């Protein structure tokens, strides 16, 4: 048990040491990102100097609006270019599928259709072909044998109950018993 306690204590100590190292590494990374961000902003965005007079402020606002408009135009142009290239890519991929002969087959659904309707759909309404499949079948009549007739009579329980119901049925039962 002492060994187990020592092993678990060591494991917990190592775990806490690893967590402390991870926390310090995360803090270092966050500080490095902040410094990098400050350097980038200092390099690309000069500090804004606000002039004292109203006319200079208006000129500064006009310059900023002009920059915003030019950036918006560039953004719109790039979006349109992106849409065009996406459309071209779709067209080219469709042409590739056409050339290869691999089409996406839609899932087929079962349709109940008679043979006549199918031929009419395939050949058009001007072709009148009658496909009466039952016309050429041989007609077979089933002959009733006496055994089957007796079995049917015995098998039909409704008839037996109707016959035995009431006084007439009891009279028949009494006469049958004699």
Description:
The chain is an all-alpha fold and 178 residues long. Among the domains are: 47 residues; 50 residues. It has six helices and no strands. The longest helix has 47 residues. The protein is elongated, with a radius of gyration of 47 Å. Keywords: Acetylation, Actin-binding, Coiled coil, Muscle protein.
Question: What's a concise summary of this model?
Answer:
By secondary structure, the chain is an all-alpha fold.
Number of strands: 0
Quaternary structure classification: single chain
- In helices, the fraction of residues equals over 70%
User: N-to-C SSE series?
Assistant: HHHHHH
Question: What is the alpha-carbon Rg in Å?
Answer: 47 Å
The fraction of residues in strands falls at under 5%
Question: Overall pLDDT, averaged?
Answer: 79
Helical element count?
6
Could you name the ranges where pLDDT drops below 50 across 5 or more consecutive residues? none
Molecular shape: elongated
Instruction: Indicate the structural class.
Output: mainly alpha
Q: State the end-to-end distance.
A: 96 Å
Largest sheet at a glance?
none
Descriptive labels:
single chain; 178 residues; mainly alpha; 6 helices; acetylation; coiled coil
SSE layout and pairing:
Blueprint: H1 2-44, H2 54-100, H3 115-123, H4 146-155, H5 157-164, H6 166-177
């Amino acid at each position: 048990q002492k060994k187990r306690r020592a092993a678990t204590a060591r494991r917990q100590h190592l775990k806490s040491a690893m967590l402390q190292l991870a926390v310090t590494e995360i803090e270092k990374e966050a500080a490095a990102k902040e410094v990098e961000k400050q350097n980038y902003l200092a390099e690309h965005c000069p500090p804004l100097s606000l002039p004292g007079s109203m006319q200079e402020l208006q000129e500064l606002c006009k310059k900023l609006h002009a920059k915003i408009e030019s950036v918006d135009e560039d953004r719109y142009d790039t979006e349109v270019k992106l849409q065009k290239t996406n459309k071209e890519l779709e067209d080219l991929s469709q042409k590739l599928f056409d050339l290869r002969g691999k089409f996406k087959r839609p899932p087929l659904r079962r349709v109940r259709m008679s043979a006549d309707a199918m031929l009419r759909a395939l050949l058009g309404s001007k072709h009148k072909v009658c496909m009466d499949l039952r016309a050429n079948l041989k007609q077979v009549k089933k002959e009733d044998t006496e055994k089957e007739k007796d079995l049917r009579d015995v098998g039909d329980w409704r008839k037996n109950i109707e016959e035995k119901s009431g006084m007439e049925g009891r009279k028949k039962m009494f006469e049958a018993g004699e």
